[in-house]
Structure formats: C-alpha cells, structure tokens
Design a protein that fits this description.
alpha/beta, transmembrane helix, Sulfotransfer_4, single chain, 13 helices, P-loop_NTPase, Rossmann fold, about 60% helix
Length: about 280
C-alpha cells in the first residue's frame, strides 16, 4: 500500500479514486474491498484483525479509498509505514448535506433493494454494508421487511464522528506522511505530495448528486454481475409462476377448490410438483 485516503466518505473519495488511477495507482474502493477481500473484512469487522492481516491483504494494492479503509487508516499505516496518508476534507455543513442525500438515494433505490433480495452476490454485499454501518459509522440500517432496508441518519452523531475522525488523523498521522487536502485545490498539491507529474486534464469529479449506486450498477462489473443474477432469478420466478398458473387453471373446478384450501406450504409443494414431476 502506497497511498491511504483517510478522508470520510462524501469528502470526494470517488473523485480521488479516479484521480489516483489517472496517476497510475491500482485503487481499491469499497466495492473492490468487498469483492476481493470480503472474507477478510467480514472477519475483521466481526472478530478483529492484526497488522499482519493488513500486510497480507494490501501487499499488492497501491491505494485505498473510502470505507472500510478510511476507518482503519492507522492500522493499515502500521502495516505499511512508508505509505502516504491523504485526509480529504470539506466544509462540515456541505459534507453532511451530501452524506444525507447519499443515504436518501440508497433508501429510494428500488433496484438496489431487488439486488439485495434476488442476487446471491447482492445478499453478500448487503451483509457487508450492514457490518460497515454497524462498525464504521456506529449506526445500523433498519430492515423493515424483505424488500425495505432503511438507513436513518442521526445528524448529531454523524457530525461528531466526522469531527472526531478528522481530528484523529490530523493529530496522529506522521506529519511528513500526511496531506490535508480539499479537492477544490486541484491537481497541484496532490501531485506534489505524491511526486507525480500534473496531468494535462481537468481534475475529475464523481458521484455528484449522490447517485453512487445508480452509477455503479451501470458501470462497475461487480454491480453489473449482481444485476444479471437478479434478472435471471426474477425471470425464472416469473416463468415458473406463469407455468404454475397455467397448470392450475387447466385443473377441474373440484381440484382447484381443494388446492385453494391447502395451507401455504402444501400449496408450494403442489406447485413445484407440477413443474418438477
């Protein structure tokens, strides 16, 4: 690990992901951490971990951004003491407005909820996000039912966590390894800190408007796999359901009446016996 982006989510971490890739770094964001290191992170988030764990996990990774890396910046730096630390910052009020808008987007994203139900990979991703919420943000997503997972935002707690995190990094990170950085400063301070040439292009800005998961489902291969899995499973369920109804309506009236009087488990047993004799 060469670069640890220790900034809180919604301080420009998605833009930093793109910028670091532009500068030649292999970058792990929260989706990459789930996909490549999900088993390790689930263990760390539930049981704990060690410096040796982080050394093994990130020995071939250049840079890390967003959750859960920002929360464990100190432990990762202990594993890679020569790595540089970037604390991305923004005005607290604008940060919280952006954070709250991101949560609203997640709560209102019907497709994301479908992935969490119908995609096997999506269900694993949901578990990962739930553990992140509980450990990293000291909060939880409220799952009202199978299809509805809501994340309520405690403004007082989130603002306190934001200030505490920024203070922890600025006070405890080695001064010669730390850059406190606002994306409005552009390429120059970032490239100077990383000893990289300044790209001949505008600094990238991503996740504007809080449409993170909508964009990920369109572009990220891991999220696209979840979408394909959900599409296949939903299509199969619709097909089985249509075939079962077709078989049901072809039955005589007495048999249909008898089936309707069955308990739900018996109905399902009969339904599947007609599809898979």
């Amino acid at each position: 690990m060469k670069v640890i982006v220790a900034g809180f989510p919604k301080t420009g971490t998605k833009s930093m992901h793109i910028a670091l890739r532009e500068l030649g770094y292999d970058v792990y964001d929260f989706v990459e951490n789930f996909w490549y290191l999900g088993k390790d992170w689930n263990k760390i988030l539930t049981e704990g971990g060690s410096v040796d764990d982080f050394k093994r996990m990130y020995e071939d990774v250049d840079a890390g951004v967003d959750a859960p890396i920002f929360f464990f910046w100190k432990e990762i730096h202990e594993a890679f003491p020569n790595s540089k630390i970037i604390l991305t910052t923004r005005d607290e009020d604008s940060w919280f407005r952006s954070y709250r808008k991101q949560i609203e987007e997640i709560n209102q994203n019907t497709m994301l909820r479908l992935l969490f139900v119908y995609s096997p990979l999506g269900r694993k991703f949901e578990t990962f996000l739930l553990r992140l919420a509980q450990v990293v943000y000291a909060t939880s997503w409220i799952k009202a039912n199978t299809f509805s997972m809501k994340h309520s935002v405690n403004e007082l707690v989130m603002r306190k966590l934001y200030r505490q995190h920024n203070a922890d990094v600025t006070q405890n990170a080695p001064k010669d390894k730390l850059l406190v950085y606002n994306l409005k400063e552009g390429w120059e301070p970032l490239c100077k800190f990383l000893d990289k040439p300044v790209p001949d292009k505008q600094f990238p800005y991503a996740n504007i408007g809080g449409k993170l998961f909508e964009e990920l489902m369109q572009k990220h291969p891991v999220m696209q796999r979840m979408v394909k899995e959900a599409f296949v499973i939903i299509s199969l369920l619709i097909g089985f359901g249509a075939f079962g109804l077709y078989k049901f309506f072809r039955l005589g009236p007495n048999l249909k009446h008898a089936i309707l009087k069955l308990d739900p488990i018996s109905k399902l047993t009969y339904f599947f016996s007609t599809i898979i004799p």
